[in-house]
Description:
By secondary structure, the protein is of the alpha+beta class. Helix content is 24%, strand content 26%. The chain is built from 12 helices and 23 strands. The strands form 6 sheets. The protein has a 7-stranded mixed sheet with strand order 9-12-13-17-16-15-14. Strands 1, 2, 4, 5, 20 and 21 form a 6-stranded mixed sheet that branches. A hairpin with a 2-residue loop joins strand 15 (334-344) and strand 16 (347-357). Helix 3 crosses helix 9. The protein is globular. The two termini are 26 Å apart. The model is unreliable at 1-103 (pLDDT under 50).
Amino acid sequence: MGSICLALWFGRSLSVGHECGQLAACWDKGTATLFSTVTVPFYISTSSAPGFQFLQVEESMKEVSTMVYLALRRSVYDLVRKASSVSRGHQHPGLGSRSAASDFAARGPLGSVVELLGQFYPQDDHSNLSQKVLSRVGRNLHNQQHHPLWLIKERVKEHFYKQYVCRSGTPLFSVYDDFSPVVTTWQNFDSLLIPADHPSRKKGDNYYLNQTHMLRAHTSAHQWDLLHAGLDAFLVVGDVYRRDQIDSQHYPVFHQLEAVRLFSKHELFAGVKDGESLQLFEQSSRSAHKQEAHTMEAMKLVEFDLKQTLTRLVAQLFGDGLDIRWVDCYFPFTHPSFEMEINFHGEWLEVLGCGVMEQQLVNSAGAHDKIGWAFGLGLERLAMILYDIPDIRLFWSEDERFLKQFRLSDINQKVQFQPFSKYPAVINDISFWLPSENYMENDFYDLVRTIGGDLVEKVDLIDKFEHPRNTHQCLSCAEPHSHFNATYQGKKVMVLTCRTHKISHCYRITYRHMERTLSQQEVTDIHQAVQEAAVRLLAVEGRF
């Protein structure tokens, strides 16, 4: 057990510390008076410092005042709890080296396998899929007839089939909406020129089966393969997976539609005067407006075709007369890149991202003599805007009151979601001290989603608190500590705590069932399970 130093500077302060400098004294009432004595079974060492008198207690048990005991009690309890936790094996060996939330994932010990869509994947220290997410794989909402996401997909398909036709009369764009969501990390990142140290690769933002396989984070993961197969124009639709915050706009599974079109020199310059003399490529320098491999003429024509294509698409979806603006942005696989915003009901809304494809990507897939554009949009995003759906969880509802509203005879028929009764929310807070390392907010959000499921409407980080630094030093660890005031033998004293540099988070969790009223008891049970799992799996120290 750690050595504890107990020093008394009469009339000024009382300091409590221990050799690792991690535990904190807890004082709830602010002051105390002496009324009895208690024993503390610890070896209390002594140190020397100017102006300090020491209460010296050797290895035998000595009596100290109730005030001192109360100040020490929580520190002692925490130390005992941590020590016994390690001895019982509750503190997992990996907590210091990897995210503890992975222990909450749907996987067995290292070396075991998980079966997904008929395939088996060996597990390793990168695996972090939760049961909640696994239960969504294979649902394919975008392929369920009359589902609002299916309606959006079909409307986009119909538009491209009608607007872009080959000389033979067949659609120019082919559509792929049944690819497996399991991809390699090379497909998801490397094929798209995403650097090895790019933050989008983090475990905290993605769902990994293991170090080499994952659930795709975007439908762009299939771009390279389709280009390599010789396709010049295609749409890809599918479910994508990202670890994210919890609110009405975010869900760990959502659906994207990706489009790519390539042009040969003849196709791009066919309608341009003296187009035969123009070139797709040159060797120049990269600027904010073009890539080093593209001529300005080629880049401008590709950008124009991209923006014209998207303007026609949103006009088909939202109606004519829509105000549109383009915002410059950055994507690793396009340059220049843009976000499209529309003014809908007086509010500017971002609806998609797009850009001129990086020529290095196109070349690596074997289309050296072509140049192209790509765009990607979120089906949920469009459906929530078009159909006035307020909560992303509704897309997963099997309630007939929701689904029957979208059984339309014509996919282009206008429809506005009519809310059924909104049941009351139950709100509970949870606060805890973060571990010294390896804590990620998305780990906590994933844990809450796994335990609370779709009963959790949102989670807000409402308070961050960093334990303040202080010029007073603990005699054991020599670190500046915070303090609280107390009364000892009629004199005011100050107790210095050993929780320096620690950070506390407080989250507000809103629980709301989409189809009935929740009872306080069932929410309490879920909330307590969240608390226990957070302590056990994220190595946090609860303040509840």
